Amino acid sequence: MAVASSDGEYEDDPESYHSGDSEEYQMDHRPWLERTAVKRDIQDLYTVKGLYNPSLGLYRYRVVDRLGEGTFSSVYLAYDSLHNLHNNVYWLPEETKSPVGNLCVETGHQVALKKILVTSSPERVENELSILENLRGCRNVSPLVTAFRDDDQVIIVLPFHACDDFRYFYRLMDPPKIRAYMTCLLRALKDIHARGIIHRDVKPANFLFDYESGHGVLVDFGLAERYQSPREATCQHEPATRSHLHGQRCRTDDTLTVEQAVYDARKRSRAGEGKVGFRQEDARPAVKTNRAGTRGFRAPEVLFKCPDQTVAIDVWSAGVILLSILSHKFPVFNSSDDVEALMEIAALFGRNSMQRCAMLHNRTFISNVPTLDEPPESLASLILRLNPHLYTPHQPDPTPEEALEHILAVDCALDLCAKLLHVDSTRRITAAQALRHRFLGNAEDDGPDEQLDPTEGKCGLLHRWVDGQRG
Predict the structure, then answer these.
(1) Domains of the chain, each with CATH number or no CATH
(2) Which residues are marked as active site?
(3) Is the N-terminal amide bond of 393 cis, ω within 30° of 0?
């Protein structure tokens, strides 16, 4: 590894990079050839000066493995050697606030180091750090421990959360496990939405769930943004407010024009003029809006390029996850572009639903695919077609009471899934309402929705304009 000399400069350690030299790492789960590449990556990380504490003459973080790689960052498992020198109560879980916990005198406390790739824009990095700072205290959200910079290299320190791969357990989940998973996810969304934050990339890979303990945390706010309410409606729905986080339908000066455009498009389609599809040379101005997210989890309003996207897009993504769990199919949507993604959604909800959804965002949806006129009778019927054993209890010999309890729980889960996946964003259930749904309802979430004081400074731009008045 790289070590620091007495004058603070870094020197190369003659230690071998051979894949068998793993005493200082935790890579037994990796093939030998893969270990070499990961070790070289870790050595490059040690060149960041913030990892070394010159006053104590030791590395603050001892990196032992790489947890994952993404488009904009890489995440590493490390031990905080100086953990005992700081007050870490605010981010440690309850079970680790005792002197024992995950703390080891020789190694320190486990943390995750997120290395932002140098190709990321400074504005993007600043936005992520600012949002993480604003989300302190949110339930089921991985909190910011600290961050440091070395020239153009930024390292974000986060708690390490033990988790399981969604692909290995989503088909094994019974109603209690599904309830625990969705409760943790929706609590995280409720808390961040109350602070005016849209995650924009909710998916299983960004929700770390420990199957055994039933606890999960939302991570990776690299694409997150603060909701900025427009001064006036830009679509056929009002901007979001604290009392209506997903906005409300409304009529604008453009309503009649949009309705006429939809009527004309339907008329041309029925007349069989053959003008359904893409124009080879489209002179219309391009619509620019935020389309950030992962394919298969983007809400219809994102695909329709709605300029006023609310926190409802995160709720849709949570519904897609629940749909995967119930249907035993992952990923549910696997399109390569936005048009195919819209067609996948239309295959579930039908042509008429998508046309109404498009009109809500000042768009038209026209297709000559005949099967769109015959969508599944309901979302529940489609799920049962994909997973015919959904109503079968997981116990080997269930009692009549256990079987009835399982059936009722599945009914409630199907109802919640349909409410999370409403194509009309203004009618889609909020995270707070979902937590009060009969499938998830519990005493902790039965109270009134959180109403934050604008003077607390936790909601950023959300309270500049609230219900038409300056906050």
Answers:
(1) 2-159 (3.30.200.20), 166-470 (1.10.510.10)
(2) 201
(3) no
